[in-house]
Write a structure and sequence with these properties.
single chain, alpha/beta, Elongation Factor Tu (Ef-tu), domain 3, six-stranded mixed sheet, six-stranded antiparallel β-barrel
């Protein structure tokens, strides 16, 4: 029986399961509501309720249902929930996992984590205190996380004498707020967690309310089910190679987020655009499944040995592809101790991919309390903003409305998660057209039956690109020839390619370089792009390629990096004065080129390019 049939059969034979998150301002009674749900649905371990009551009696403390959840010592001493507590309860219809997300402003970061896998939410507002700043923040965060099934619980109605006008006032004001952020609450329920009103049983204290109880509303929420009908997405966790006993498998591993995959399907990896067919689906110490579905940690082999790296996203041919880019438009909720500012390097994580990122522009900052806009060039702690980010390299993603999993991210500042958000758009950058060409080239690439791994084993090296640049008068070609000779004498497969070889050959159709050296060659970027394409061919053949060019910039290195299949790139600046914004791996003084060549070879050894470093 296929895995899909088994899954469907299991769904029929087993009770439904649903994740719920409960949020609200500190002390608005979330834990009490959950405690009541646990107690009134007989979901507590036997004797647990009596045990808590007895502990309260011994310590001369009034019993509260919230104590049923207080598993952490800090929670009891501080009286606030400091981590997302997970607990189970059941109704006649289904089983629930309820996530008690913190309400205190200092613990909003935990809330984002707690709410990320929820299908519906309960949002608690204290009837006596009314709508607080965190109440609106939480509503906006639920919106950003894509949670659309929301029941608002107006709690502690016993403290306002079950006054209907208090309930109606909160209902109107909070409904107006939710409407502004594109959400409509499923219902507003007046409750008292302490007294049990409208939690599992209809309240006699509020005869004016004829809607659902909390338990009835939970059972009316719809489960999302497995996102199996969405386009296939699997962020690559790693590629694992086996060599023992003639086993030459290369297994692409990751967790399927959406869609399905089976043997024979053609997969395309982004951002590289590499493609192949699924040869086998693998499982650890278990029979190989027929199909991969969402939630499965899986691995598969390919018919062709293509170079895939961690962070790429596997998609299926014939389905909507991922988007690729370096500039994204995002809605961000900032939680960092320091403000989000320009001219500072952060790291962004999307799926399994990680890249350096900088804030390019703050489009607008949103006041999460009243949804007013303000214009400034930084984002402070606990603010929501629409921003444009520029990444240091191409990355694959989806817009959040297309695929929430591959359309959200976190930003890391100095080893701590400082913000999170969703991708809503992208901005075309200067390499967008080149990137499109490269992806199409890779999709259409006629692959050799001799893969990169086999060439690396034969040549005892990995393909690498050594770029030597510097001022025009620096003797870059002399150094390049010394590097080529040293590597060749040590048995490595190496080739020296000066940019002039490309300019007067492959680039012969372009306008000749201007004679006035004070003017910039209008075709320079195209020369460099074509140099990258020629380099890509030689790198695919397993070579170590040494190229030279005058005063390359960071932009031009990025163009080469966009054009070639990711190899090891070593950038060398020759000369004492660096005249561009280039980021180099080595900076060498002129003279003694044999010594400099040895330094470059040592660097390649340290990077793992050469397999025989002692030669």
């Amino acid at each position: 029986m296929s895995l899909i049939k088994e899954t469907l059969k299991a769904e029929v034979s087993q009770r439904e399961f649903m994740n719920i998150v409960i949020v609200g301002h500190v002390d608005h009674g979330k834990s009490t509501v959950i405690g009541r749900l646990l107690a009134d649905t007989d979901s507590l371990p036997e004797g647990k309720l009596e045990q808590v009551r007895e502990n309260c009696r011994r310590n001369s403390k009034p019993f509260e249902y919230a104590f049923l959840l207080d598993a952490l010592k800090d929670e009891r001493s501080q009286g606030i929930t400091i981590d997302a507590a997970r607990c189970f309860f059941k109704s006649k219809k289904r089983n629930y996992l309820i996530l008690d997300a913190p309400g205190h402003v200092e613990f909003l970061k935990n809330m984002v984590t707690g709410a990320s896998n929820a299908e519906a939410a309960l949002l608690v507002i204290d009837a006596k205190e009314g709508i607080m700043e965190n109440s609106t923040r939480h509503g906006y965060l639920l919106s950003m996380l894509g949670i659309r099934q929301i029941a608002v619980l107006v709690n502690k109605m016993d403290l306002v004498d079950y006054d209907r006008s208090v309930y109606e006032d909160i209902k109107k004001n909070y409904s107006d707020f939710l409407e502004k952020i594109g959400i409509k609450a499923s219902c507003f329920i007046p409750v008292s967690g302490f007294q049990g009103d409208n939690i599992t049983e209809r309240s006699e204290n509020m005869p004016w309310y004829d809607g659902d109880t909390v338990l009835e509303r939970l059972d009316l929420f719809e489960t999302a089910g497995l996102p199996i009908d969405m386009p296939f997405r699997m962020p690559v966790q790693g590629v694992y190679k086996f060599t023992q006993d003639g086993d030459d498998r290369r297994i692409v591993a990751g967790t399927v987020e959406t869609g399905k995959l089976k043997v024979g399907d053609t997969v395309i990896f982004y951002p590289s655009g590499k493609k192949s067919k699924v040869k086998t689906i693998e499982a650890f110490n278990a029979p190989a499944p027929e199909i991969c579905i969402p939630g499965m940690a899986t691995g598969f082999t390919l018919e062709d040995q293509i170079y895939i790296t961690r962070g790429e996203i596997a998609t299926k041919a014939g389905e909507p592809p991922c988007r690729i880019g370096r500039k994204i438009v995002a809605n961000v909720f900032w939680l960092g101790k320091n403000s989000l500012v320009k001219n500072k390097e952060y790291h962004i994580k999307i799926g399994t991919a990680k890249a350096s990122v900088r804030l390019d522009k703050v489009v607008k900052v949103l006041n999460a309390s009243d949804l007013s806009d303000k214009t400034k060039d930084y984002v402070e702690r606990h603010e929501v903003a629409e921003c444009i980010f520029e990444l240091a390299k191409d990355i694959a993603f989806d817009f959040n409305h297309e695929n929430p999993v591959t359309g959200r991210f976190v930003i890391v500042d100095e080893y701590e998660i400082a913000g999170g958000g969703i991708i809503v758009d992208q901005v075309k950058d200067k390499y967008s057209k080149v990137r499109d060409y490269v992806v199409m080239r890779n999709i259409k690439w006629e692959k050799s039956i001799i893969g990169r791994d086999l060439r690396s084993i034969r040549y005892k090296q990995k393909p690498a690109l050594v770029i030597i640049t510097g001022k025009e008068e620096a003797d870059k070609k002399e150094l390049a020839r010394e590097v080529e000779k040293l590597l060749f004498d040590n048995g490595e497969f190496v080739y020296f390619l000066g940019i002039g070889n490309v300019v007067y050959g492959v680039d012969a159709d372009l306008k000749a370089k201007q004679q006035d050296r004070s003017l910039k060659d209008p075709n320079r970027l195209e020369h460099i792009r074509r140099l990258g394409e020629v380099a890509n061919l030689l790198l695919d053949a397993g070579m170590i390629l040494v190229v030279t060019a005058v005063e390359l910039t960071a932009e031009e290195i990025d163009l080469i990096d966009t054009t070639v299949i990711p190899p090891h790139i070593c950038v060398v600046w020759l000369g004492d004065e660096v005249t561009t914004d280039i980021k180099y791996d080595l900076k060498l003084s002129e003279g003694d080129y044999r010594k400099n060549a040895a330094i470059i070879r040592k660097h390649l050894c340290e990077r793992g390019v050469l397999f025989n470093p002692s030669m």
